[in-house]
Amino acid sequence: MPAAPPDPPAQSDPQPLPRDFASRDALVAFCRDRFPAADAAHPAVSDTPGGRPRALARLGAIDLAQYARTRNALDGGVTRLSPYLHHGVLTLAEVRDVAVDQGQGGARPGKFVQELAWRDFFRRVLAELGTAVEDDLESWKTGLQDDDYAYELPNDLLAGETGVDFVDASVRELYDTGYLHNQMRMKLAAYVIHARRVHWKPAADWFLAHLLDGDLGSNHLSWQWVASTYSHKPYIFNNENLAKVSGGRFTGGAGPLDPGPFAGSYDDVNQRLFG
């Protein structure tokens, strides 16, 4: 009878990461030392503070009327609560309850609660479909097929050096802060997918790697919504809309002689991108 194989060597428990630091600077220094590759790739550190006390302070400061009126503008009254929701520092239910309580005092929480409902919806879709959200859920409605889209992100996009004003500014903000206003997320996605013909999947993965609030469901399903593989049509915009939401900060072009792919009317943009 053959001898039983020897027991495998015991595996030592991995060293647990410390949880307490003397200061934020000490935490940043530890992360730079522990994860040198990430530090070398993108050394910027987001200025979003962590912790439940900061999250509760931000929650208590929400202005529902301003949110409803200005949320689509880059300088509008967005709450910046999404990182705390993503990391479980706040729950959707408690944020909803604060908004409803404000509503009883005369505020109108409908628009804000609607956005919470979208986050809840995407989480439910992810729970139902799992990793299927990482593949096309529907066929493209752009007149193109998967093979028409590249699966590698262009180097000028990754470097934020496309020359298109809103694109390069958005890429820099994503790297530096881990956050983008929802309008810029949609518009950057439309540029990547429709103007550069890059498949939504590698682009969504790129976003997810940098966002502080990057829920897989919300992120990937939103990219599919822009692409048209989770909606009835592709999302597009034009330079006039971009100028409106950015308060004139962005023109959508790469200089006075190049108005960019989203110039003209929506019919012009549709014809240029999909005609």
Features of the shown structure:
275 residues; mainly alpha; single chain
Written overview of the protein:
The structure is a single chain. The chain has helices spanning 24-34, 36-41, 52-60, 64-70, 82-86, 92-104, 110-129, 155-158, 165-177, 182-195, 200-210, 216-227, 239-245, 266-274. The protein is globular. 51% of the residues lie in helices and 0% in strands. It has 275 residues and is mainly alpha-helical. It is built from 14 helices and no strands. The model has no long low-confidence stretch (mean pLDDT 93).
How would you briefly describe this protein structure?
The protein is mainly alpha-helical and 275 residues long. The protein has helices spanning 24-34, 36-41, 52-60, 64-70, 82-86, 92-104, 110-129, 155-158, 165-177, 182-195, 200-210, 216-227, 239-245, 266-274. The chain is built from 14 helices and no strands.
Number of strands: 0
Average pLDDT, rounded to a whole number, is 93
Provide the gyration radius in Å: 22 Å
Structural class: mainly alpha
Largest sheet: none
Give me the number of helical elements. Answer: 14
- Unreliable stretches: none
Cα(first) to Cα(last) distance is 75 Å
Shape: globular
Proportion of helical residues? 40-55%
SSE order, one letter for each helix or strand: HHHHHHHHHHHHHH
Fraction in beta strands:
under 5%
SSE map:
Layout: H1 24-34, H2 36-41, H3 52-60, H4 64-70, H5 82-86, H6 92-104, H7 110-129, H8 155-158, H9 165-177, H10 182-195, H11 200-210, H12 216-227, H13 239-245, H14 266-274
Helix pairs in contact: 6-7, 7-12, 10-12, 11-12
